[in-house]
Amino acid sequence: MTREVRTVVYDTDLKLEAYRFEGIMQKFPNHFHDYYVIGFIEQGKRYLVCNHEEYILNSGDVIIFNPQDPHACEQLDGRTLDYRCINVEPEIMRQYVLEITGAGDLPRFTPTVLYQSELALSLHELHRMLLEEQSDFQKEELFLFLLEQLLREYSDAELPSPNRELTTEIKSICQYIESHYMESITLNQLTALTGLSKYHLLRLFTKQKGISPYCYLETIRIDHAKRLLEQGMLPIEVALLTGFSDQSHFTNFFKKLIGLTPKQYMRIFTTRQTETKPSPEITS
């Protein structure tokens, strides 16, 4: 018999609940929640009824329940279900929507199911960060961009047109990141520099620089890390000196950006130095 695993984490930074169900066979009777649920199917085939509409769910499908949406579901293929979701209380959703749209109305998302949605990848990455209790602002950035897309494409909320570019503010953020890359930087610190809300800061920065603030930060860190590795410094020391939370985070991001692990990159230069070192003279 497959072992069931049910994991729940509350993220105090974003004020969200993250649920993960692995290997479950449970049938859920008709019920509703008083909060928003944004989830996706990792594995399994599920029959869902929501608001009198019937759906067949498969791996990669995204599900969105509004508060008070009645729904029931059960397995179809006899295999177990792996499912992840985040739960957002209405007042928390209202705060995020106000920041993104400028209006405090609660949105209504439709349709209930987004079949084989590309958003499942972003949702999976966000969910992983929540479960691992990641502390840097990458998860906050990812959530705001994900929510913006959901609001723009699948809700009745009206998003404002892009504002004028704020070049001075964006330059100050770049300068701050370049000077403090070795520290733990938060979105709150960046918004304090400019007076922009988190959402507008993220959107304007990404529009002007072509890269999100977090990716900009990590790229600056990697550039400095490369120089230290070229000098023969050990990866574990480099990770600490360039602001990464741990060596594993450093290694994963370095490989994703450079295509080599830090150790592989370091060996290129240590090997070259060994080969070019002159041989000692032999005297008779």
Automatic annotation (TrEMBL):
The keyword DNA-binding applies. InterPro entries: AraC-bd, AraC_XylS_family_regulators, Homeodomain-like_sf, HTH-like, HTH_AraC, RmlC-like_jellyroll, Tscrpt_reg_AraC-type_HTH. Keywords: DNA-binding, Transcription, Transcription regulation. It comes from the Bacteria. Pfam families: AraC_binding, HTH_18. Residues 171-268 form the HTH araC/xylS-type domain. PANTHER family: HTH-TYPE TRANSCRIPTIONAL ACTIVATOR RHAS-RELATED, TRANSCRIPTIONAL REGULATORY PROTEIN. This is AraC family transcriptional regulator. It comes from Paenibacillus borealis. The lineage of its organism: Bacteria, Bacillati, Bacillota, Bacilli, Bacillales.
